[in-house]
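Case study: 3-phosphoshikimate 1-carboxyvinyltransferase.
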Amino acid sequence: MKCIEITPPADIQTCIQLPSSKSICNRALIINALAGSTCRPENLSDCDDTRVMIEALTHMPETIDIMAAGTAMRFLTAYLSVTPGTHVLTGTERMRQRPIKILVDALRSLGAQIEYTENEGYPPLKITGKALERHSLCLPGNVSSQYISALLMIGPMLAHGLNLELEGEIISRPYINLTLKVMKDFGAKAEWTSDHTLQVAPQPYHPVPYYVESDWSAASYWYEIVALSKHEAVVTLPGLFAQSPQGDAKVAELFEQLGVCTQREGNSVTLKQTHTHTDRMEYNFVNQPDLAQTFVVTCAMLGIPFRFSGLQSLKIKETDRMAALIAEMRKLGYVLEESEGSVLSWNGTRCAPDESPAIDTYEDHRMAMAFAPAALCNSALRIRNPHVVSKSYPRFWEDLLTAGFRITQL
Ligand SMILES: O=C(O)C1=C[C@@H](OP(=O)(O)O)[C@@H](O)[C@H](O)C1
Ligand SMILES: C=C(OP(=O)(O)O)C(=O)O
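Here is what the predicted structure looks like once written out:
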């Protein structure tokens, strides 16, 4: 097993070119393919999740391995259902434990031909593409928004368009809005018709030149670094649009409570410390699940008790993120509590920290990236299997070196 040790710098003054958003890349790639475009969107990420999508759409092999990419698994399931040919869609061991029944049932109810090749309800899937005849369905909105995005994106290809009714609480709604935005950018007519219903017109996509914005979820680790720095810290992040369609752009507002202000100049933001923060933080992360790990680590390291709700989807992501956070924060001396399957809180309870803590990353890029900045509050911190960052941010460790962190391979 590989392990690195991170030693923090004193002052930080740096400019970091973030990777582009894998969420936007993977939507633009699917829609671009459905639009029959011969050009690729620009500024595509070189992260694993986007690489596997490009590979799949370019070569369309009989067996498509999307590794750990949730978006690729869900979006390609819908895409392959309307694309001629038969393909097996598979992924990592963890991907084969991430549920997909809701999406498969929904596509089957539209007429799709999909079989489970191993376990009912989970990848791998064998999909034969065909014209889907039906156009209306009802599905749960409280498990993963990626199922809904996947269905929406094929809506313009269906003879009568698509009407979706979502049952229950809708989680990750900004990601559905992001899907609608990218679809509209490519000429589709798709919108919310009420709080729980969506409609897509049978109006085909047009190929358009497309430029992908930097990743706001990746920006969150730089907010965390500025918040936790014991010395002067100024970080500039180019490529983040003023009116971002990414739900995780909320990070800028949320970090005001944790002592970081955001100055905007064109498509660039500069983060600085304000030296004031809240005494306690409460927030419902139902719309920004990917930010939860960043805020758990930041708040604890700043000694800010918190209660974070809306975390139910964390259990079915790259790992059970609730369990992983509880286990790894304990190594740093913080006792977190889980309740109701969706709430994680810290009321200030401490325990003896490990003498030289080594953080396990559970094949989860966000465990590595959310814990790395905690080095700023220790003289050094170890991270196991640091390569996991390649899922969304392959140059994360190089960027830490640019900012002045020292990284030693153990
Ligand atoms: O649509 C997307 O691009 C994503 C949606 C979210 O998943 P859920 O809808 O499963 O919460 C998010 O966690 C994931 O990283 C990316
Ligand atoms: C949950 C994530 O990704 P996905 O579901 O697309 O694998 C993530 O990037 O945090």
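For the exam, be able to explain this: Residues 69-71, 290, 317-318, 366, 392 surround phosphoenolpyruvate (ligand 2) (CB under 6 Å).
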